[in-house]
Specification:
By secondary structure, the chain is of the alpha+beta class. α7 runs parallel beside α11, α8 runs parallel beside α9 and α9 packs antiparallel against α11. The radius of gyration is 43 Å and the shape is elongated. The C terminus is likely disordered. The strands form three sheets. Strands 2-1-5-4-3 form a five-stranded antiparallel beta sheet, with helices on both faces. A five-stranded mixed beta sheet has the order 7-9-10-12-11. A two-stranded antiparallel ribbon has the order 6-8.
Length: about 425
């Protein structure tokens, strides 16, 4: 009896276990059906797509590693650049000021400016842009700050900079604005030009003194030479007349150089005042051509003048422009042995352009840069040109620039030279004296 009960319990237990297994199999069957349904949703090339995606991820990972490396190298390069800039900032021999572009607050200052002005580094950082003595007028400083925001570059020269102990320095002030992490910063470079201005004044004084000291004796010698050449103190033989004529021509050249030195001294000192008037530019050109007609004829040179059909009137300093035309046309005749010289006037959209072209020997490219510099030709024989002082072209450049124009030269060895200058059309209507 006991065995029967035991067997019954055992069978009951096994039946329960079988029922659980059957239930599990039914769930497994349901899951299997679900998986089969889900699998039907994927395309036949799913495995291929999976492989492609895996390959693409590998490529992307490789690119990411490359970009991370490049970023690291860039960061290192930026660090090197920042270090170099800081070294330059700390050691350069001119003052540097870093200013907040919006508020004018000083953010940083280099040691040279600290020494130049006598304030401590900490004292600078407590100041505004207009507190350091360059722009003590707050309103003027704010105007400069506004200019910087629009122009992004401002340059001033001959600014009076007041040091902590009251000393006044003449400085050149150059500033640029740039963006750093969405913040506008201004870098101001401040250069002490007091010594340069002193030397320039000394040079101008020497030039003026030498020119004045030469002009009077040269005038007396020239007058005496003219008396002798005209035979007023006795007859001259042919040889004597040749020698005295050569001496007289040399004196003329020295007088021109002396007058040129005085003109340059006045131009550089800003002491030339333009006496403007309205006149027909063709009349001025014809006047100069008349002066050189005999000299050009002796060399067999033809001078051609080409003008616009309508008359071109200009409001300018007639005597100063006469000096420019005399120099350019005189040089063209001087350095041309055969051929012709052309004077052309053309009206452009914004300018009146004048050119003087010759068929002379031409000028080397490396020598062109010296043509308009003071004393650029002194003691130098330019290739393809006679020796000259170079003062005439330098003076011409200053005169044209005083009229707000530009002058330049084009030339090629063996093909002649062309000198072009422009004057703004606005000068034609201008009624103010500069």
């Amino acid at each position: 009896m006991k065995n029967k009960k035991r067997n019954k319990r055992k069978l009951t237990k096994e039946i329960g276990s079988l029922r659980k297994q059957i239930l599990g199999l039914e769930k497994l069957k349901v899951n299997l059906q679900y998986c089969e349904e889900e699998l039907k949703k994927y395309p036949d090339d799913f495995e291929e797509q999976l492989e492609n995606r895996t390959a693409a991820e590998k490529i992307i990972n490789k690119q990411l590693r490359h970009e991370i490396l490049q970023r690291k190298l860039l960061d290192e390069a930026l660090q090197v650049t920042a270090t170099r800039y800081r070294r330059l900032f700390e050691t350069t021999k001119e003052g540097i000021l870093i200013v907040d572009g919006e508020t004018g607050q000083i953010i940083d200052v280099n040691p040279f400016l600290v020494e130049m002005l006598g304030y401590s580094h900490e004292a600078f950082l407590e100041k505004k842009f207009w507190d350091i003595g360059v722009f003590k007028d707050v309103e003027a400083s704010k105007t400069v700050l506004a200019d910087l925001k629009t122009k992004k570059h401002v340059r001033y020269e001959d600014l009076p900079l007041v040091t902590k102990n009251g000393q006044i320095l003449e400085v050149e002030f150059i500033s640029n604005i740039y963006q750093v992490n969405s913040k506008k910063l201004i870098q101001c470079n401040i250069r002490d030009i007091s010594e340069r201005k002193r030397l320039e004044g000394l040079k101008e004084g020497i030039v003026r003194t030498v020119a004045h000291e030469l002009r009077n004796p040269l005038g007396i010698v020239k007058e005496g030479m003219s008396v002798v050449l005209e035979g007023l103190v006795g007859d001259l033989n042919k040889k004597q007349k040749e020698i005295l004529t050569l001496v007289n021509n040399t004196i003329d050249r020295l007088v021109r150089v002396t007058n040129g030195l005085l003109d340059i001294s006045k131009l550089e000192a800003g002491k030339i005042e333009l006496k403007k008037e309205s006149f027909e530019i063709a009349d001025l050109i014809n006047e100069v051509i008349f002066l050189f007609k005999l000299k050009a004829g002796k060399k067999g040179l033809e001078i051609e003048v080409r003008l616009p059909e309508k008359e071109v009137k200009i409001y300018a300093d007639r005597d100063k422009l006469l000096q420019v035309f005399t120099n350019l046309i005189g040089n063209a005749i001087k350095f041309t042995e055969k051929g012709s010289i052309e004077v052309l006037v053309a009206e452009k959209e914004k300018d009146i352009e004048v050119s003087v072209t010759d068929t002379g020997r031409g000028i080397n490219k490396e020598d062109l840069k010296n043509l308009f510099t003071t004393f650029g030709q002194f003691g130098v024989v330019l290739k393809g040109l006679e020796r000259g002082s170079g003062l005439g072209l330098c003076i011409s450049k200053d005169i044209i620039e005083l009229h707000k124009g530009e002058i330049r030269a084009e030339s090629e060895i063996g093909k002649g030279s062309k000198f072009i200058f422009t004057l703004p059309r606005a000068l034609r209507q201008d009624t103010r004296v500069a």
